[in-house]
Write a structure and sequence with these properties.
The complex is a heterodimer of chains A (117) and B (124).
Chain A: H1 2-46, H2 52-71, H3 75-90, H4 96-115
Chain B: E1 4-8, H1 12-26, E2 29-33, H2 36-46, E3 50-54, H3 62-71, E4 80-84, H4 89-98, E5 102-105, H5 113-121
Parallel strand pairs in B: 1-2, 1-3, 3-4, 4-5
The chains are: A mainly alpha (117), B alpha/beta (124).
Amino acid sequence: MGLSRLPMEMAQQSALHEAMNRLWAQYLPQIEERVATLEAAGRSLMDGTLTAEQSERASAAAHNLAGVLGTFGLAEGTTLAREAEAFYCIGPPIEPTVNARMVEVAVRLRALIATRK
Amino acid sequence: MARRILIIDDEDDIREVAAMSLETVAGWEVMVANSGAQGLARAATYKPDAILLDVMMPGMDGPTTFRELRKNPATAKIPVLFLTAKVQATDRRRFADLGIEAVLVKPFDPMTLSIQIAGALGWA
């Protein structure tokens, strides 16, 4: 019984893997757009022009990325996005080093999504 | 036995991955809704075995949608599970106080999502 289930589970895994790759390709532009929102927020943080509205958009983008990246196997992406969400949901900047960290997070997220084919 | 699940989530990528996962891995029938309001209408007509409900949605959020589901006799008894990226203990306590069946966390593993749901609901 255990043996007869094995091919079925392998077929399921293969079908799932294929479907996940298709969905990744389909939603990649949307994911990239959310990373772009974080990149823009990071730039605004550094030049001191981040608005409350922009911060809210960045928080929403980070929230989505936190949920979706790990689901597509990018666990580090979820960790980074959660860090950004926690930062932007509080609001305006605290100190330069923290602001620089948000720029780094966006850069890392951009690099990370490029690694998934 | 093919279960019938309604997924309510405003994020189309998450919604579609969850639906695909439940259909592909478990062979369940899945219907989706992209807002709390649409979810209420679909729950009443579709009568799913369970509802997977996002917490943070624009307009009617998850907790409000859940309360509305409970007010309608047609949907009051349908088990509801929250699917959320909010994982803090205070949130979990608040959700548990509402009377939901379980809280599932985003990100989720598409290979085991159906197992998590079945486990939470005591489905064999």
